[in-house]
User: What shape does this take?
Amino acid sequence: MVSRQTTAGQPIAYAASAPKYSTRIASVVRSPLYQHTLGAAVESRIGRVLLLTGVPLLWLVMMHLGPIYQMLKISLMSHYPVQQGVDWHYTLANYAIFFQESIYFTPLIKSFVFATAATAATLIVVYPVAYYVAKVVRPEGRSRALLLLLVPFWAGELIRTFSVIMLLANRGGLNVLLREIGWIDRPIPMLYTSFSLGFGLVYLICLYMLLPLYSAIEKIPVQYMDAAADLGAGPFTRFLRIILPLSKDGIVSGCSLVFLTCIGVFATPMLLGGPNTVLFPETISGFFHGASNKWPVGAAFALIMLVTALFTAAIFMRLVGGKKRSAF
Amino acid sequence: MRGIFSDGPRTALTAFYWAFLLYLLLPLTLMMAMSFKDASFVAFPIGNWTLDWYGKVMQDKQFLDACLYSVMIAAASMVAATTLGTWIAMLIVAEGIRGRMIIFALACLPAVVPGMISAISLRIFISTIDMPTGTAAIILGHTVHAVPFVVVMALTRLRSMPGNLVDAARDLGADNVVAFFRVTLPYLGPALLGGMIFCVLLSIDDFVRTFFLGGYRPTLPMLIFAKVQGGMSPEINAMATIVLVVTAAVGLYAEYMTRRARTR
Assistant: This one.
C-alpha cells in the first residue's frame, strides 16, 4: 500500500563498507544489536514501510478512533457494565430517552444557545483587535502586540475561570468599583447567572478566535485597500467589500474552533453558572458519576452532542463558504 | 504608505486594543492581588497586605503533592505525544503515501472533538480494555489530546525542509533511520521544543480529562477546583498565582523558542 523510494542508489552496497560517523550514533549504528534489528529492517522495503506506518497507524486507529467506536457501541447496549447472568441486547432506547424528557433536551438547547452567542460575541469583540494587530500596528511591533494578548492564556482554563469570579462576585472588583463611583448602592448579582457564564466563556476562548483571524487578516495585501481607496471607496466600503470577504477563512476556522470548544466546556459552567444554567456536559456527566450509573445513556447523549455540534459547525462552514482548505 | 484608515478609526482601534488587553488582564490581576490580602474573607477592597498565604501554600503538603503529580503526568504525556506526533507527521509527509488526507484528518480528530466528549469516550474506552482509572489513564488521555498539536507543528516545519537534505544523507551512506535522527530530527528540533512545551501546558491545564480519568490523587486543576467548590480563601489565590506565574514563564519561553526557530 505504501512505498518509499530510496534515492540513494543501493543502500546494501553501502552497508558493507561501514559508514564513518563521528558521533555516538556511530557506535549505535555499528553495534550488532542495531544491525540485526532496525538496521536490517530498513534495508528491505517491507521493513521500511512497517517502521514508518506501524506505530502511527496503530495509534491512530486504536486511540483516535477506538474511544469513539466504543462509545458508539456502548450507547447501543441495553446494559453496561454487563453483569453475569444479565441479558443484554442492542437497542436504540438510550437515544429515545433524550427526546422524552425536557430535563434532558433543554440543557442541550441551552448549550447551543450559549455556544452560539459566545461565538458571535467573541467574533465581534476580537475582530477589531485582530485587525488592529495585523494591519494598524507596524510590522516590527506586531509580535509584541500579539504576545501581550497571549500572556493571559498561559493561565489554565480553571485559573481564568476562577479569576472571573474575582471580578464579578458581589464583593468582587466590578461591584466594588461601581459602588465607589456611586453608581449603585447595593451590589448587582452578576455571578452564577447567564451573564457571568457568557462573560466567562468569552474570556476563556477569545484566543481561539484571535489567532485564525489574525493570520487571515495579515495575509491581505495592503495594496488592495490602497487600490480601493483610490477608486473612491470609503473606510466602511473597504471593510465590507475587501477586508471582510478576504478574511472569511479566518472567520470560519475561528468560529468553528470557538463553537466546538464552547460546547465542550465543563468546569466553567459548574463554577460560574447557577441553577438556571445547567448545560449539557453537566447533564451527561451525571450519568457517569454518582448513584445513577447509566453509562449507555451517557454515551448516547455524548454522541448526540458530538453529532449535532459537528453538524452545526459543518453547516456553518458550508454557509459562510470559506474556500476549501486543504492541509497541503 | 498611506494609512488604511484615516486617523479617527485608527485611534478608535488603538483604544479598543488596549481596552481589550485590560479586559484580558484585569481578572487575573484582581485574582493575584487578592492573594496578598491580610484577611481570610475574599472581598474587595484589600485593606492590609501580607505574604502569609504564600507561606501557608508552600507548606501545604496537598498542594506540593499535586504539583509533583501534575509535572510527572505532564512530562510523561509530553514524551509520548512528541514521539507519536512526530512519527505521524513523518508518515504524512512520506513519499508515495496514499490516503494522506485521511491520515491527517484522523490525526486531528481529537482536537476537533469537544473536550468533554473526548474525556467520556476515553473513560468508556479504558473500561472496555480493563484499564483502571488513575495515573496511566490520565497520561493516555493527555497524550491523545496533545498529539494533534505536535503533528501540526511538526508538519509545518517539515514542509519547509528542503527534500534534498535527506537525499544527501542517504547518498553519504546513512540508512533511513540514521538519516532521520541525524538530519530530520535536528531540523525539526526548535519546532519540536515548542511543541513539547505546549504539550506540557496542555497537560497541566487540563481539567475535564483528568476529572473523568483520574483516581483519588488530585492534579493541580483538580485541587484548585475542589478548593473553589469548598469555599473561597485567599489561599486559593496564592496557589493559582504561583501556578499562573510558572506556566506563563514557561509559555513565554516556548514562544521565544518557536519564534527563534521560525526566523532561523
Notes: Chain A touches chain B through 110 residues (CB under 8 Å). DSSP finds 17 helices and no strands in chain A. The mean pLDDT of chain A is 79.
